[in-house]
Amino acid sequence: MNRTVTLAQGAGGRQTSELIDRIFKAHFANPFLTADDAAVLPPPVGKMAMTTDSFIVSPFLFPGGDIGKLAVCGTVNDLACMGAKPLYLSCAFVIEEGFSLESLERIAVSMAETAKKAGVFIVAGDTKVAGRGQADGVFITTTGVGQVQDGVRLAGNLAAPGDAILVTGDIGRHGCTILLARDDFGLEAEVTSDCAPLWQLTEAALKKTKEIHVIRDATRGGVGTVLYEIAAESGVGISLKSEAVPVLPEVDGVCRMLGLEPLYLACEGRLVVITPKENAEAILEVLHRTEEGKHAARIGEVTGEHPGRVVLETRIGAKTFLPEPGGELLPRIC
């Protein structure tokens, strides 16, 4: 059998069926996955959330994860940000002719393992093979459906002056990991991606209190971009204390050498949580009991001053506007 993906495996005939059976059906098997044209599923109780995302990370394999793990985490975390328990995922693959079958199976195994950890079923999918040069290895698109928990209302326009701003762990690791994995600068550092599914962490916080206004997944553009988005949507100002923002020394060192701002480096396992300040310590206590939230921290507050802007208080007490995000810091990171 060929060791790489061929155009025939994307043509819809016997070779396509063999590829699906060997790689995807073998690892994604669950009670809802069938050979029919669509999955038939029990509906969520109450409101449901739905999201879709595409993943084109380069390199597809990186310390702490791969494109398969990233595809599951990115989608279930988007559902979690709406207070929705992830239930079902679909996934579509665009695979370049010549891509290693061994690598493809590794990606499928990673997706299956991550889906199991997240408590979500992969129920449907699609496979296309592009000619050489028409894609870059493998692209994955995932769509997720989740059940919104009773009494939860989360939105980017609900932040209010006086709210506390929390982050669920150290920031910038995913973006730094991808940068180092490309080896464009000849730098070495022991950094791994923070890529992780976050529903269990979110569920723990929401069980403690439903009085949370905003939860956002700080992916492309990092925490800084997320805060600018929330400031614009809610018509509020954001005040951050730079010393309170958790950054690993290795990530900080790379950023200093390259002139990067950790607040704008991507995360794939970190949430920004905005809640009334009286709930902040109780939520942090709950987060600290989880593996993904053990380094959660309060990093600032929502204010009525400078609507739409983020103010950063430096280590020496000076205050400055955090530059607004612009351009593409690192392409192809998720």
Task: Please describe what this structure looks like.
With about 325 residues, the chain is an alpha+beta fold. Helices cover about 30% and strands about 25% of the residues. It is built from 8 helices and 13 strands. It has helices at about 15-30, 65-80, 100-120, 175-180, 200-210, 220-235, 250-260, 280-285, and strands at about 50-55, 60, 65, 85-95, 120-130, 140-150, 165, 215, 235-240, 270-275, 295-305, 310-315, 320. The strands form 3 sheets. Strands 8-10-7-11-9-12-13 form a 7-stranded mixed β-sheet. A 4-stranded mixed β-sheet has the order 1-6-4-5. Helix 1 runs parallel beside helix 3 and helix 5 (about 200-210) packs antiparallel against helix 8 (about 280-285). The radius of gyration is 21 Å and the shape is globular. The model has no long low-confidence stretch (mean pLDDT about 95).
Offer a quick outline of the entry.
With 334 residues, the protein is α+β, with helices and mostly antiparallel strands.
Number of helices: 8
Compute the average pLDDT: 94
Overall radius of gyration: 21 Å
* Spatial separation of the terminal alpha carbons: 31 Å
Could you say which structural class the secondary elements and strand pairing correspond to? Answer: alpha+beta
Shape, principal axes of CA atoms: globular
Order of helices and strands: HEEEHEHEEEHHEHEHEHEEE
Instruction: List the uncertain runs.
Output: none
The largest pleated sheet is described as:
7 strands, mixed
- Across the major sheet, the strand order is 8-10-7-11-9-12-13
